From TrEMBL, chain A:
This is Sulphur oxidation protein SoxZ domain-containing protein. Gene3D superfamilies: Immunoglobulins. Residues 10-103 form the Sulphur oxidation protein SoxZ domain. NCBIfam families: SoxZ_true. InterPro entries: Ig-like_fold (IPR013783), Ig_E-set (IPR014756), SoxZ (IPR030995), SoxZ_dom (IPR014880).
TrEMBL record, chain B:
Pfam families: SoxY (PF13501). The keyword Signal applies. Keywords: Signal. It comes from the Bacteria. Transmembrane segments: none annotated. Residues 37-138 form the Ig-like SoxY domain. InterPro entries: SoxY, SoxY_sf, Sulphur_oxidation_SoxY, TAT_signal. Residues 1-28 form the signal peptide. This is Ig-like SoxY domain-containing protein.
UniProtKB/TrEMBL annotation, chain C:
Substrate binds at residue 233. One of its GO terms (molecular function) is electron transfer activity. It is found in: Periplasm. The gene is soxA_1. It comes from Falsiruegeria mediterranea M17. This is SoxAX cytochrome complex subunit A. Residues 1-20 form the signal peptide. Heme c 1 binds at residues 94, 97-98, 129. The lineage of its organism: Bacteria, Pseudomonadati, Pseudomonadota, Alphaproteobacteria, Rhodobacterales. Its cofactor is heme. Residues 78-162 form the Cytochrome c domain.
Amino acid sequence: MASGVKPRVKVPKSAAAGEAITIKTLISHKMESGQRKDDDGNVIPRSIINRFTAEFNGESVIDVTLEPAISTNPYFQFEATVPESGEFKFTWYDDDGSVYDTSKKIKVQ
Amino acid sequence: MKLTRRNLLILSSAGVAATAMGSLPAFASLTDDEIAKLTGGAELGEGAITITAPEIAENGNTVPIEVDAPGAVAITLFADGNPVPNVATFNFGPLAASRSASTRIRLASTQNVVAIAKMEDGSFQKASANVKVTIGGCGG
Amino acid sequence: MTKKLWATFALISLGTSAAAQDSNSLSIDGEAMVTEIAAPSHMENVDTIYSGWRFRSVETQALEMDDFDNPAFVFVEQAEDLWDKVDGAAGKACSSCHEDVADFAGLRTQLPRVDDGELVTMENLINECRTERMEAEPWKWSKGNMTAMTALIGVQSRGMPMNVAIDGDAAPFWEKGKELYYTRVGQLDMACSNCHEDNYGMMIRADHLSQGQVNGFPTYRLKNAKLNSIHGRFKGCMKNIRATPFKEGGDEFKALELYLASRGQGLSVETPSVRN
């Protein structure tokens, strides 16, 4: 597991049913591209987050495939519709097999 | 890594030295190949997708990009001056409130960022934006 | 400022409008920051001082205006965890003695300062706690743990004006810092002042030269995607002018930090800022 990986997400605490809400996510990750070389000229192997998903109550909001051209500390902003109160689940998949996730509850009034 | 100018260029450009600074991106044909793979050679419409990118990026390491294509099921981003053109694919689920997303990407040099949207009817839309990437001041 | 920037811009620009200053007014999550103020009286050659934020492009500026968009907060949150983490033989964490990190509001504005005849920076204070009270290993000056912690403690003072003491005990350190600021060094034979006093607002290749203010440190740089310490930045500058850098945490850089902090008196603490 890459060291110091920490997810951050920003989700409103409440919303109206059917309202479009903005979600922002960020995870600390080097996103080593596989294009760089070390001091001895050896290629530093690729090590990135290759997939990110956001679900609400088990249903998909967005499913992103990431390539090495995504910047260090990958950031995404997108919009979701929430039909009822429930929980967002955000998941990041690392090249090394690690999976990082975090959840956020939202109340629909 | 020692801080030679060459290494700085490599660092700040995700792998390519400034060979692609001219008007013709070095890897443009790679991008065409990848787009053809995605679309199966289908015709690319325009107008139903927008891409928002800075005209000039202060640093190629972190370039904010936004794409928006109402009616798209997926949007794929390419950078035609990067050693690997593919950047990301956004697949929108049933709870996506819009077919838009923002992220931050690496650009090795001045180049075009291309977005291809796959629409609900199976057709494809294309938009592109030219982003000038500056090299830093002293040393990189 | 616009007038000066644009007047000087043409002189050495690449003929593009790259990196021209785009916005004048900074508020972070709704809190207004002072990014421009009359220079303190000790500055003989400059009338107005400006935060480095003013010299960045609109996209880079935007990253600092919202704490979620600012990638530095990933590290601030890491430091919140470190704050409660027990380390060292004494079995203590920061929080064992310091109940709330918010109690450090104002500290960042006064550093570096003289304690018992010695000029100390925030890194010194943190490492003193680690070695004396926690009986833990000191952190390296510019490594991740240290820059994260200086960001966490620094952000408690965000929005407060820089206000370092330069008289009394501090005077000899300040004089030394001033001398260093104006001393030409390295193969390129340049002093800090050649870029950051004589030519701020101009382009150095594709980069927009700032006044070299330290009110936003540690700063998240797009260039290396991490928090950068003040002394780490000094080192970078010295390498760029092909000089042998002084040691991080050494007397020279501490004195220079004090002098530069005094050239930013009245600017808001922006820690952790975002720069290119």
